[in-house]
Amino acid sequence: MTRTVQARGIPSLRSWSGVEVALAAVLLALAGISWLLSAVLGMPEMRMGLLTGTGQAEMSGGPAPFALFLAVWVVMMAAMMLPAITPFTIGVSRLVRARRKRGVLPSLTLGYLLVWTAAGVAAWAILRGFDAIDHSGTSVRVGAVVLLVAGAYEFSPLKRWCLVRCRSPLALVVKHGDTVVRGRLGLGALRVGVHHGGYCLGCCWALMVVLLAVGAMNLLWMAVLAAVIAMEKVLPRAEIVSSALGAVLIGAGVVLLIAPGLLAPMA
């Protein structure tokens, strides 16, 4: 087991140095703070979605609501994703310390979050589209289609391709190691963070759309999806997790297409 984990580039916990433990603690502390902020900053209309009932007020348009949504979205992504990228960050930490290079890890995390910030723009557009849907049985059927698409994506070659690269951070570190340590002002680390964030987005975009459909700021669903994402990235047989998740999503989608009344009273 240890060899398998180390081969993926996720160092065994027993091999972590005090500096690496401290780094992991910082990332997890930031994630914890982000969870608290998600609970405090969450807009009421973001706590419910197509499949869990509509909020009391729809998402209003304009620059100010969009900016607020994007800020909250980034906090959400930090809460959900920082624990999952801790192994990758530890791998890069070992590389930069071996090359006696400092100051790149904040740029690495920033590059990762920049990808999810860009994804927040698309998430805003999706939410606006959801608001335009008649909140009755129609909204449940649209939510069912979202579940079906997300479930089917779990079985797709693109999902597996991105997941393999997301689960093998060492490959990215080795490939772009010189970019990390030679880039000025942390730009090399920023680029590598963007690369890793792109693979993660490729793995998780469909699940994020599901989150929008059940309630983007619903802490329970955030926690469920964060746990699933972490399992896909860390457990030895991630394909089993993906297949099981895909089957559950497709099954739920089929049931709701056939019997939207199961949730219609809530919508």
UniProtKB/TrEMBL annotation:
Which residues span the membrane? 21-44, 64-92, 104-126, 199-228, 240-264
Report the InterPro entries cross-referenced here: PpoB2-like
- Which Pfam families does the UniProt entry name for this protein? PpoB2
| Swiss-Prot/TrEMBL keywords | Membrane, Transmembrane, Transmembrane helix
Q: Which stretch is the leader sequence? A: none
- Reading the lineage from the top rank, the first entry is Bacteria
Say if the entry is tagged with keyword Membrane. Answer: yes
- In Swiss-Prot or TrEMBL terms, this protein is called DUF2182 domain-containing protein
- Give the organism the record lists: Saccharopolyspora mangrovi
| Organismal lineage | Bacteria, Bacillati, Actinomycetota, Actinomycetes, Pseudonocardiales
